[in-house]
Design goal:
Radius of gyration: 21 Å
Low-confidence stretches: none
Helix content: 40-55%
Number of domains: 3
Largest sheet: 7 strands, mixed
Strand content: 15-25%
Bound molecules: NADPH dihydro-nicotinamide-adenine-dinucleotide phosphate
Distance between the termini: 28 Å
Order of helices and strands: HHHHHEEEHEHEHHEHEEHEEHEHEHHHH
Length: 451
């Protein structure tokens, strides 16, 4: 490895030794941009990599709230304002008990690259809290969101930092957060949050965007490789949240047979094809467990997750696997099983769902691999379209937004393909995505001086 890259990586590991997810994300990027670093000797003197790796700002704060029993609870909130090079900080909020600084930094770091790839004027950020919305009443979630925003509001704004949803943060949470922001600020600043409901400034097609975008990207990747398509292919999709549900919907529209989906407890396998209306009812309306699927489909199978390192969904033979749940959910063990069963493509709907060793294994076994920062960029891209609609005080139709989203995903795929080809790693779309995004970021950094 190039000496400069090696030194930066070493320093990053030493300085952040208790942040494994963050180190994983940085390592993945640094190891694939070597040809660009070699071609630009000046980057070392400018400490370009060191500056990209260090967040502009990290905010952590106390979130006290009162539960339904009158007991005071305290959670820890975060906002990592990573990079404002290309536009206002932009990235989702995650409410999940696993949230910590390492996870916030890995997500924020990835977001800089994803947002650069989108071609839209948005910087990179991430935030969230170790609060678990699961099993909480609506009033508890509201009180929590109000407390969270009472601190966060002073750090955000339509031209400063624009949060959105992520795991555990959907339309309900965004609504409560927005209501509290508006109340504190005494003004209607629609563009301060995205993922809003359409009734008060949200964008049509934002709910569908990440899942649809993933399938548009996959469609382009399949087409570019022997003119393949979704039609008639078996597909397995992990998770059953926002990304998974709409990936399933678009894949089904393209003639694929989705045979399995999951949640954090286990997966359902329905060889007749997933009944998506039922999944939506269980997950979006009832907020229940995926196991409930069996109540209407007695011949489907439920397999409980015992070992996360060998998640049952990846043991089911499939043509296309779409990890859409969480980080590091597809291990080397799982990748081996997928390859043995003849998988042809893996597309990351979640952020960093595939372990580094698993990616390497898939690629050396000629499995087409669509990396998260490119393949799931449809969500944030549509958030940026929501921001522009808010600025214009205007709405686009569902079809207009969907068309723009589709074109953005086509452009992102082309950028990954061309960069991989130009820098000698043809077909490696993960390297292509990192290189294309890094080149754009590096140019902006050089132009803006030492800041
Ligand atoms: P949701 O909260 O809507 O859904 C998450 C889903 O993943 C739930 O079904 C959850 O199950 C499941 N899950 C969580 N952990 C595991 C696990 N270990 N194994 C299996 N399933 C699990 O989140 P989203 O769909 O919004 O986000 C999913 C991923 O996509 C995340 O990585 C997120 O960062 C990424 N992403 C999301 C975007 C968006 O627009 N929403 C944009 C870009 C990326 P359970 O109900 O049991 O918790």
């Amino acid at each position: 490895m190039n000496k400069y890259l090696e030194n930066v990586l070493e320093k990053t590991k030493n300085k952040n030794s208790n942040e494994p997810e963050f180190i994983q994300a940085v390592t993945e990027v640094l190891t694939s941009i070597e040809p660009v670093i070699v071609a630009h000797k000046e980057y070392e003197q400018l400490a370009l990599l060191e500056r990209i790796i260090e967040p502009e700002r990290i905010i952590t704060f106390r979130v006290p709230w009162v539960d339904d029993n009158g007991q005071v609870q305290v959670n820890r909130g975060y906002r990592v304002q990573y990079s404002s090079l290309i536009g206002p900080y932009k990235g989702g909020l995650r409410f999940h008990p696993s949230v910590n600084q390492s996870i916030m930094k890995f997500l924020g770091f990835e977001q800089i690259f994803k947002n650069a790839l989108s071609g839209l004027p948005i910087g990179g950020a991430k935030g969230g809290c170790d609060f678990d919305p699961k099993g909480k009443s609506d009033s508890e979630v509201m009180r929590f969101c109000q407390s969270f925003m009472t601190e966060l509001y002073r750090h955000i704004g339509a031209d400063i930092d624009v949060p959105a949803g992520d795991i555990g943060v959907g339309a309900r949470e965004i609504g409560y957060l927005f209501g509290q922001y508006k109340r504190i600020k005494n003004g209607y600043e629609g563009g301060v949050l995205t993922g809003k409901a359409v009734s008060y400034g949200g964008s049509l097609a934002r709910t569908e965007a990440t899942g649809y975008g993933l399938i548009y990207y996959m469609r382009e990747m399949l087409k570019a490789n022997n003119n393949q398509s979704f039609n008639g292919k078996k597909v397995t999709i992990s998770g059953s949240g926002n990304v998974a549900i709409y990936a399933c919907q678009k894949a089904q529209q393209y003639g694929a047979k989705v045979i399995a989906m999951s949640d954090s407890n286990g997966c359902i396998y329905d060889k007749n094809g997933i009944d998506l209306d039922l999944i939506k009812q269980i997950k979006e309306v009832e907020r229940g467990r995926i196991k409930e699927y069996l109540r209407e489909h007695k011949d489907a199978e439920y397999i409980e997750t015992i070992d996360r390192n060998d998640a049952p969904i990846w043991t089911i033979p499939t043509d296309i696997a779409l990890p859409c749940a969480t980080q590091n959910e597809l291990s080397l063990t799982s990748a081996t099983k997928l390859v043995n069963h003849g998988v042809i493509a893996v597309g990351e709907g979640a952020n960093m769902p595939t372990e580094a060793k698993a990616i390497e294994y898939l690629q050396t076994n000629d499995v087409l691999f669509a990396p998260a920062k490119a393949a799931n960029a449809g969500g944030v891209s549509t958030s940026a379209i929501e921001m522009s609609q808010n600025s214009m005080r205007y709405y686009y139709s569902f079809e207009e937004v969907d068309k723009r989203l589709e074109q953005i995903m086509i452009n992102i795929f082309k950028a990954c393909e061309e960069s991989a080809e130009k820098y000698g790693c043809s077909g490696n779309y993960a390297a292509g995505a990192n290189i294309a995004a890094f080149r754009k970021i590096a140019k902006a950094m050089k132009a803006q001086g030492i800041v």
